[in-house]
Every structure is written in C-alpha cells, then in structure tokens.
Amino acid sequence: MREIIKRKSAEEICNHRDEALRLLKAGLELLDQAQAEAGKATNKNASYWVSSALQRHRFNDGDTHAIRAGRKTIDADVWRNIFRVTGLGDKFDTEHRRKFEEQLGKDPLEVTIENIIATSLDLAGRQGEIFTNSIKNLFKRLSRYHKSNSGFCFGSRLIFGDILSYHSMMWKDTIRDLERAVLTIEGVEVPSYNNGIIAQFSQERKGIYEAMAGEVENDHFDFRWFKNGNL
What we know:
Layout: H1 7-42, H2 48-57, H3 63-86, H4 94-106, H5 113-125, H6 127-140, H7 171-185, H8 197-204, E1 214-217, E2 222-225
Antiparallel strand pairs: 1-2
C-alpha cells in the first residue's frame, strides 16, 4: 500500500516532538535552579513567583507528572495535525471524531516514526469500513415516526426528528455528517466546515429562537426545517 505519510516527514515530526519534550524537561530544571538562587537571595525557600511557577507544573510526584502531561498534550496535538494534513480524518463522522478525541484525551499513542507509519497505513486501509460505519450512524439518527424514512435505505426524502429544537445541539453534526456522506458518494470534494451547507444554515438561523422554520438549498440538498424541530 502506498505510504500516506513519507518516512522522512515522520522523522521530521518526531524530531520536533522529541525536541519539545527535551526543552520541557530543561525548563523544569531551570525552574529548580531559579528556586535555589531565589532562596539564596531572599533567605527563604523560594520567592513567590518561582514557587508559583513550580506549583503550576508540579504535583506530588514532581517533574514526572509534568513531563508525562506534556508528552500527552504534545502527542495529542501531533496526531490531530497528522490526521488533518493527510486527510485521514476526512471521512470521520461525529461519532468517530468523538472516540478519536476521547482516546487523545485519555492516553494518546506515543508519537514515533513506526507508530506514525503503522497508524497511517492502518487507517488508510480501513477508510471504506470507517465510511460505512459513519453511514450506519447517520441512518440511526433518522426519525422512526415517519413512514417516508425507509427502514432499509436512504431515500430522496429524509426526516430527522426534533434535532432543531432549542434543547438539541445535534443539528450541525447531523447536517455536516450528511453532507460529507452524500458528497463522498457522488465523488464531489467535501467543502470545509465554514464553506459548506452549515454556513448557509447559519445565515438563515441566526439564533436558537430565530427562524424556527425555513429552507436552505444548494446543488445537492434541499433542507427544510419546521417549528416542531424536524428537519
């Protein structure tokens, strides 16, 4: 399978990541030195600002926690960037993105050359599976109270029940997921979030209590929403 990200690029990413962690450790060591020197100058354990700086970065187990937290933050951001620039996350629907962010928040995979290449190849090979699952997730959101929604397939008319009511925050995710799915099937490039159908909706629906009924259409969709929250 063709490489999604070149080994040279992976090496460059890892070098920057490793240097960031090295500087983090060096910075903590400098704070130690600053605390010692402040103590000598003030005849106290440490001046206020040095103690505050140390407390922001340290817990009961000292530098170990700060370095571990720094590693998690840096690695999580590196994976987000890799998914963005390679396009590996383009077919992720809301559910996949939620799981992806949960994993990054708990314990992101360590950024190494081998992990970057292996993860990229694995996800590239499962793009079809990921897209199919996103279609299934979207299908589950359809209202089961309307006969025009088929129990087995998508038709030309779809009804999502109550997703535009004031207490629902799902409408943007659902519309974005639908746009991504339809355009991908049609072989059309999916526009960015700010240039897609969501931008048109935002123009028509200025706030939660405004434009509770209306219509938006483009070359691919004709969306109509109603006061009962249905789309």
